[in-house]
Structures are given as structure tokens and as C-alpha cells.
Inverse folding.
């Protein structure tokens, strides 16, 4: 849908148009730190008021948005009319992405969408557009029939149990086509530009590839995508999850960022020219490598994320997830890859639990710092870093767990510049609580290893 002006008359016309199409309700979705959509639902005739900021929220304490504070002012959700999308799986609803703010002008400090918009404005002031493509993976299970021994939920299609892996297996895709076909139809109707889809390496793991876009549009698109995947799965009695590593033996679910900068006036890609990768691209890479440890706190944001960031799977095979803050020429074992088939830098460390807004904001800030300071990442790594036991002069180990990542996040000056003191304090406190809760839990692994031997 084309971008609209903010005049109420146009919003009234939009509401009338949608009502004529059979839409009954509107959702002005804001996103919490965990990446889940939140919103009140209004009748379609109330859409102009919704866009004007009629709906108020007390978001603290919800989805990681700070500790509950019953005394602070309410937030207003202000939807962006240019994002209006009728939901293909339920045409009674129109979806709009929204920002949270106070009084319509002062952004809520813990609003991920506002944080990204602020960093995009910094890039625009320097003449850049930040483009982003995301390869996101997820698992789809049948909720019934869990294995009594390990509580594994069975994959959507039985052929997904192929060994050593069902990756790219055509039969596994064909068996899952009722769900996959419905997903493709919904994605095409909402402008995703689907390139391809496939069965990934895990039992019941899938990936859709679609067109890149300016970063805010891509983050908005992925907010809708998460809801779409789960809702379409429910139509078939299935359960979809973006948990990075559902089981010990599972492949991890990535959310790979494919990033480029373009000139804001001409749209020219600034990462590659006729001579190859540019100084701008190398500076961007070096900036990300400098802040890789802090970036992990938002790119791999859960305790479970670090079960994915291991060099090998439980069976000893390569995990395809990076553990070193290295870059390489088409080297998929590195955190950052300079692919041969597109003028974009790929960050393979980002996982499916990442909040795209927050990860994009810090990634962009780190890349811009590298460009501004003329940094260079050194020579590209050609070796398989999955076999490394020590880093190099230019490649440090990524955090091994959430605690290490949060400590790096709290100590990084760029983090405070990008997110602000209130967000940093709340996010760090939330993640320390998550780590402490996890660390206090006595696991089956511990009982198996220590109960009878000590």
C-alpha cells in the first residue's frame, strides 16, 4: 500500500476503503524486546483515531520492556499508515506497525522500532541508506505424539527424519507443502517477494528467502512474518517456533543479516564496485568485528542462543554457526562473510530469537563507526574456523554464554550511545535475571553426571 499523508481525511478514506474490502478490525502492532507483537484491536471505523494515537498502553513489565512502574505516564501507539497490510489468513484484520511514545512526540525509550529509526536517521545524515535482507529459519512441529523419553516433538513431515539430515530434501518439502504453500501465498499477497523455500538441516526446520528492503521496512516485515508463521501453522494443527535450538541434537535456527549501504541520493550500492569490495565495506566489517561481543547480546539474545553458537553439533558434524568474530571471502564458518553472489555483507551469528530492530540498530552503528574511523578488518580468513582452538590477531571468540554477552553489552560505549541509559539499564537487568534463573536450575545433565559419582 502506498505511503499516505497524516491528514485525518485520508485516514477516513483508508478506513472506508478497507471496510469495503471486508476488513472489520485494525491492529496497530508495537514490538516488545522479545520480538512479539502487542496491540489493542479496534473496529475498522476507529482506524483514523488509532493512527492519530488514540490507544494507550502501560507496556512496562511486558515482554522485557522494563520493570513494571504503575506511576509513569501511559504510552501511545502511533501506527505507520504506509505499513497497512490486510492479513491474508484472516481478512477481517488490517495490520499496521506502530511506534510507542509519550504524548505523540517523545519516543518511549524501550521501543525497539524507535531505536532503529533513530539510528537510521544518523545514517541518513551521513548520506547512507541501510538495506537489509534476512534469511530466517524456524521449526514446525506436530504438538501431539512427543517421545516419552526426551519429549521431542515430532517434525511436521515424517521424511524430515532423514539421516544424516533432511536439508534440501525435495520429498521432505513435498510432504510439508500444505503448510508451505499457504505460507508462500500469504507472503506473496503481503509483498515479501518470495525467492525460494526449503527444508533446512534440522528435523522440521524450514527457511524462506525473500527480497531485501530498507532496514525499517525489513524489520517491520519480519514482525509480521513471525505472526504469520505461527498463525498459518495453527491452521494445520501445527506448532511453529523461533527458538534458536529446540533440542540438543538439533540444528540451530539462524536469522542471517545480509547488509549493504547505498547512497541516499542515487541508490548506488557502496559496498562493491568494478574493483571488488570497497573501503566502505571493509570499514563496515571492521566496525562490526570491534563490537561483536556487545552485539551478541541482541543478535543472540537468549540463554538458548549459545547452544547454537558452538562449532559442532552433538553428533560431531559442523554446526554451520560461527564462534569467532572473523570475516572471510565467501567463508561460511566466519561470523561475517563476503559472498560472491551479492554485494552485501552477511552476518551469520544472528539467530532466530533476535529482535530485528535492536540488532539492526547496533549493527548499523558499529558499521558506521568503522567507516568513520577508517578501520580495516585485516586479511580475510580462509580456514575453517570450526576447527580453531584459539583466535588470531583480528578474530576474537564470540561470547560463550549470555552472561559474557551482557557484560560486554553493558561495558561498550557505543551501546550506550545507540540505546540510551534507560534502555541499557533495563535490558541488562532483564538479561541478568534470565541468566540467574537459568543458572539456578538443576538440569538432567547435572544429575546424570554428578548424582551417583559424587
Amino acid at each position: 500500500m502506498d505511503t499516505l499523508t497524516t491528514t485525518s481525511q485520508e485516514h477516513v478514506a483508508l478506513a472506508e476503503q478497507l471496510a469495503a474490502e471486508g476488513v472489520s478490525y485494525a491492529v496497530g502492532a508495537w514490538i516488545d524486546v522479545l520480538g512479539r507483537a502487542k496491540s489493542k484491536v479496534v473496529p475498522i471505523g476507529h482506524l483514523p483515531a488509532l493512527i492519530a494515537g488514540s490507544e494507550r498502553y502501560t507496556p512496562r513489565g511486558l515482554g522485557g520492556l522494563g520493570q513494571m512502574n504503575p506511576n509513569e505516564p501511559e504510552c501511545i501507539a502511533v501506527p505507520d499508515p504506509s505499513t497497512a497490510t490486510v492479513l491474508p489468513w484472516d481478512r477481517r484484520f488490517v495490520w499496521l506497525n506502530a511506534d510507542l511514545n509519550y504524548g505523540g512526540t517523545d519516543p518511549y525509550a524501550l521501543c525497539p522500532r524507535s531505536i532503529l529509526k533513530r539510528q537510521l536517521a544518523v545514517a541518513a545524515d551521513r548520506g547512507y541508506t541501510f538495506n537489509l535482507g534476512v534469511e530466517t529459519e524456524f521449526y514446525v512441529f506436530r504438538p501431539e505424539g512427543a517421545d516419552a523419553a526426551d519429549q521431542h516433538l515430532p517434525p511436521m513431515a515424517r521424511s524430515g527424519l532423514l539421516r544424516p539430515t533432511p536439508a534440501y530434501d525435495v520429498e521432505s518439502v513435498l510432504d510439508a507443502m500444505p503448510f508451505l504453500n499457504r505460507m508462500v501465498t500469504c507472503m506473496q499477497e503481503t509483498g515479501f517477494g518470495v525467492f525460494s523455500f526449503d527444508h533446512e538441516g534440522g528435523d522440521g526446520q524450514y527457511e524462506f528467502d525473500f527480497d531485501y528492503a530498507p532496514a525499517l521496512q525489513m524489520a517491520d516485515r519480519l514482525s509480521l512474518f513471525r505472526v504469520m508463521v505461527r498463525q498459518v501453522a495453527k491452521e494445520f494443527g501445527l506448532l511453529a517456533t523461533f527458538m534458536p535450538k529446540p533440542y540438543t541434537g538439533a540444528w540451530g535456527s539462524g536469522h542471517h543479516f545480509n547488509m549493504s549501504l547505498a547512497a541516499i541520493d542515487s541508490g548506488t550500492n557502496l559496498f562493491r564496485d568494478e574493483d571488488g569490495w570497497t573501503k566502505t565495506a571493509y570499514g563496515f566489517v571492521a566496525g562490526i568485528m570491534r563490537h561483536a561481543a556487545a552485539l551478541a547480546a541482541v543478535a543472540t539474545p537468549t540463554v538458548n542462543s549459545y547452544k547454537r553458537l558452538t562449532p559442532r553439533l552433538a553428533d560431531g558434524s559442523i554446526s554451520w554457526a560461527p564462534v569467532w568474530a572473523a570475516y572471510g571471502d565467501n567463508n561460511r564458518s566466519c561470523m561475517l562473510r563476503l559472498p560472491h553472489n551479492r554485494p552485501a555483507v552477511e552476518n551469520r551469528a544472528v539467530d532466530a530469537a533476535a529482535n530485528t530492530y535492536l540488532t539492526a540498530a547496533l549493527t548499523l552503528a558499529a558499521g558506521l563507526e568503522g567507516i568513520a574511523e577508517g578501520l580495516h578488518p585485516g586479511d580475510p580468513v580462509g580456514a575453517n574456523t570450526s576447527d580453531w582452538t584459539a583466535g588470531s590477531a583480528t578474530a576474537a571468540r564470540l561470547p560463550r554464554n549470555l552472561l559474557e554477552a551482557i557484560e560486554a553489552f553493558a561495558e561498550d560505549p557505543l551501546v550506550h550511545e545507540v540505546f540510551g541509559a534507560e534502555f541499557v539499564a533495563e535490558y541488562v537487568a532483564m538479561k541478568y535475571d534470565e541468566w540467574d534463573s537459568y543458572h539456578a536450575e538443576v538440569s538432567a545433565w547435572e544429575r546424570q553426571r554428578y548424582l551417583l559419582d559424587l
